[in-house]
Amino acid sequence: MTQRLNIIGGGMAGCEAAWQAAQLGVPVTIYEMRPKVETFAHQTGDLGEMVCSNSFRSDDDEQNAVGLVHWEMRAAGSLILATADKHRIPAGGALAVDREPYAKSITAAIHAHPLINVTYDEITHLPDEGQWIVATGPLTSGALAEAIQAETGSEALAFFDAIAPIIYADSIDMSRAWMQSRYDKGETEEERTAYLNCPMSKAQYEAFIDALLKAEKTEFKPGETAGYFDGCLPIEVMAERGRETLRFGPMKPVGLCNAHDPENKPYAVVQLRRDNALGTLFNIVGFQTKMKYGAQTRVLRMIPGLEEAEFARLGGIHRNSFINSPTLLTPQMQLKSKPNIRFAGQITGVEGYVESAAMGMVAGRMAAAELSGHTLPPPGPDTGCGALITHITGGAVAKTFQPMNVNFGLFPPIDTVKGGRKRRKERYKAYTDRAKETFSAWLER
User: Fold this and answer.
1) Residues 6+ apart with CB under 8 A from 324
2) Cβ atoms 57, 342 nearer than 8 A
3) What DSSP assignment string belongs to 241-295?
4) According to the model, what pLDDT value does residue 159 have?
5) What is the pLDDT confidence band of residue 396, given thresholds at 50, 70 and 90?
6) 3-state class of 42 per DSSP?
7) Is 441 in a helix, a strand, or coil?
8) 14 annotated to bind ligand
9) pLDDT tens-digit profile of 130-170?
């Protein structure tokens, strides 16, 4: 193998694409602009850095679509999932990691691979020659974004994404908070007590909503417009949609019993999840926010147990960009106008760490196959990875295309399994069984 695969971006999609191609014998160069060119969201120059949550979400590969993608990635020898398993921390039924050593392990593995080189330079154009994968994520640099726009002849689509605050554990009042995973989910005691819970009475909840709605928010730049991705809405935007929205979202009290007052059911509950293996940091689950820093500390300290909270990182908001993949990409994830360039990760319009890395995994394997002289078709649409590729390369309606998490609504129905809520467990198990069989066969191609 003399031809080289070039990858722009050292995030999860780029690292996974590089790993898959290199494991198949293809030499790879990753071009990563950090730390020379910084972004709003990144804190380090590490490869594979997690900028928002530290969770890969559900690890249930029988009843959850994202858990199924975990299974598919593990079956394909994923670096991202193997490293996540290595640095796993308790999170109930979710796969959450200690984010700093996680990124350092990714960086070390990439640098140690004999077929992967990393060049810390910014690429500002779309090359005409060679095989390339653009995996720059939602924070693509301005120069490259302009080059993409010039090539595609369309304005870049965009949405706003937000980051949740992180709190020092020793500043949380445990006489008011308690440890419990929702519905005591988990196989071990550590998993069943993976979340820290702060209860609210109705009066406390109403006062919190009032303060949240009145708080000063970050103002966008003149002419900067975009929508929000529904899976990562700022809490104040949710509150604006209705006073009870948060109580039926991230602050829902179901499946929890206040250890300090078991006879009284909380009206609402704020959950925090461990953010590192030491348990010294906790992030507030679902509390992405665009409140200004002063307002954040004031409003969040209204939460029972967080009155004296000290913040390791406050929340923030940034603009994410993605291309209109249904009009621009082939099923091989190639740019129609420049077939030597593939796109992968969040820039294609998938949302979430897992989905982004999965698209990098498939793009890396497809590119490796092409450089080896044959064509690898995408995984079947009845797999998690295949359902995502089908969606972004033509299954979605281009005019209304927005970022999408993997979900069973993207899968072809199974005629022999009835619909409806009562049959949901049976249906999801049928979906995942079928997907595993199809994906296993794809890996043999």
Assistant:
1) 152, 154, 157, 349, 398, 401
2) no
3) T-TTTGGGTTT--TT---TT-TTS--SEEEEEEE-STTS-EEEETT----B-HHH
4) 67
5) confident
6) coil
7) helix
8) yes
9) 999 999 977 788 788 889 889 988 766 666 667 789 898 98
> pLDDT per residue over 339-363, tens digit each?
999 999 999 989 889 999 999 999 9
359 assigned binding-site residue:
no
The answer to whether 12 is a known ligand-binding residue is yes
Helix (H/G/I), strand (E/B), else coil: 214:
helix
Collapsing DSSP to helix, strand or coil, 176 comes out as coil
Q: The whole model's pTM is what?
A: 0.79
Residues of the chain with CATH 3.50.50.60: 5-156+323-443
Superfamily of domain 5-156+323-443: FAD/NAD(P)-binding domain (3.50.50.60)
Cα(227)–Cα(160) distance, rounded to whole angstroms? 6
Tokens 């949550």 — which residue? 53
The answer to whether the annotation marks 395 as part of a ligand binding site is no
Please say whether the beta carbons of 192 and 180 come within 8 A: yes
Sheet containing strand 316-322, strands side by side: 227-228, 157-163, 316-322
